[in-house]
Write a structure and sequence with these properties.
Elements: E1 2-7, E2 36-43, E3 46-55, E4 67-75, E5 80-81, E6 85-93, E7 96-105, E8 109-115, E9 122-129, E10 136-137, E11 142-146, E12 154-164, E13 179-186, E14 188-196, E15 199-207, E16 213-218, E17 223-229, H1 234-237, E18 243-251, H2 255-258, E19 263-267, E20 270-271, E21 277-280, E22 287-295, H3 296-303, E23 312-319, E24 329-331, E25 337-344, E26 347-348, E27 354-362, E28 372-380, E29 386-395, E30 399-404, E31 410-423, E32 426-428, E33 433-441, E34 443-444, E35 461-462, E36 468-469, H4 473-483, H5 489-501, H6 523-533, H7 539-551
Parallel strand pairs: 8-11
Antiparallel strand pairs: 1-9, 2-3, 3-4, 4-5, 4-8, 6-7, 6-12, 9-10, 9-11, 12-13, 14-15, 15-18, 16-17, 17-23, 18-22, 19-20, 19-23, 21-22, 24-25, 25-27, 26-34, 27-30, 28-29, 28-31, 31-32, 31-33, 35-36
Length: 557
Amino acid sequence: MQLYVKSILSLVLGLIVISSAVPFIPQKAYGDGFTQENVQASIGNRVITAFIKLNPPIITSDTSVDKTLSFRFFDANTNTTINNVSFFINATKGDKILMHELFYTHTGYLTIKFQPGGEDGKYTVYGDPDPVLGGLGSQTDQVTVAGPILQEGGLYHFHMELLAIDYANTLIDQSNPPKFDSYLSVGDVSTQDVTYQNNSYNTTLISYYDKTSNFNFDESTKQFSWNMPFDWDVSRFQDRPIFIHEELRVPKSLTAFSDTPTYAASAQGYGLTGSRIIVDPYTNADYMIVHLFLNKFDLLNMSKTVPSGTSDIEFKVAPEKPNVQTSASLLTDFGGWHVKLGWNPKNLEAGSQNNLNISFFDSFTEQQVTGDVNYDIQILDKDQSVLWSKTDTVARNGVDAQAVNLPINGIYSVVIKVKSITMNGVPDTTRTGMARGNVVIPSTVTEDDSLTQSNSSNPPTQNQTGQTVVIPQWVKNNAKWWQQGQIDDSTFASGIQYLIKQGVIQLPPTASSQPSSGVTIPSWVKTNAGLWADGQIDDSTFASGIQYLIKIGIISV
């Protein structure tokens, strides 16, 4: 194996031009920014596919594991590997060109191992040149590149163009060659000791998009914040997939932050709600993990009001009052899938069948999946014991339905693991991921998953004792139905009892804890419920009336 020291400025490639070039039909072939992906282009009636795999699956700046980029070229129609592939790779990071090289694989497989070394624009390749076109490869289908590639956190762009396929001297028409673009984010890991009440807590932040800065913890508000560089030029990303994933790991021993199931989060001032913020207290016994997500549509929305000259995104995460709602929309932690849940009936009750319609979407394009999705689904109780599950389930054309019956009231976790997507009979396992959400019994499911500037349709208010009161939307719906006579006093009282048990409405000091002989609620409370549901009185006024009912023993806990 030979050693080649390369400089971008002085790189000259000698190519043998063959007149009988292979015609190319243009087709967009954008990478999705995953650690594994298939990107495609058509040549005649063939769909040329490049399978690209980055290893380890999640690269972070502090890992000592070998960093490799593996390729397989095949025809998607037949799943047949393509031999004798010569292809250019142009690797950049920001405005820096890191590598421009021609590689060759006789078998259709190639692995590039990256090692530290070189500097921007300079690198060393350990490989053997193909005697026909000069592309670098080896008999073991592995070459090594020493250079500043995948050695630090940030966004890398790999632009690839095919030169020849099938035979070493069969060139593709180079006036318009097949092009593949892959944007891979090397995770930036930072750890900080934060102080709360004179105690130190080691916290980890992982940005799967770019390096972060200005990490801060506000002890008075228990809020974490940080900045991440971002180019807000819409023309840069409006025509290609883009996805931002931030992961905050906070020790559970910092109970002022971790002792709540819900958090308020924002990105550059925009509230992140629904599937844009996922809380995972289960994966690690010692840490509360909060995932924040932004896709292209979020970023396009945000760009309309971002001031000119802005060059970053500021993220904020803080605990908020318990306000757990049944999820109608989930995002996978990796793989880039958006899972939409349609509950029927929308009013979930214990001991009754609830039909769950599941639809899978690509979170980059928000287009529904047309292939068959192989997935597992579980519903877990508060102790993470499995109450209900289905394994190796298939959503035909991206759609499936399940019947769920939960025995008692409570807060449950729904977990969906995407295992593969089958298109044209060929399973694709490159985009696996786990999605988590909540199921609340009883509750009324809402389907709003839009990017909004507030974190709740019901902004927090304060009652007469200064306590913050945030009441879920489903309770307001119940109040309206109760005022209209569609549900009875007992059903409405059950919802209120649930609120009290979850700590959303605080018991007054003299509240009764003994069961009452019956539920008879004064008419003025029903009138208040109707006014509150219509927005004519605020949460704290309505809560005060409920506290009065508790105090005099009409509603017991």
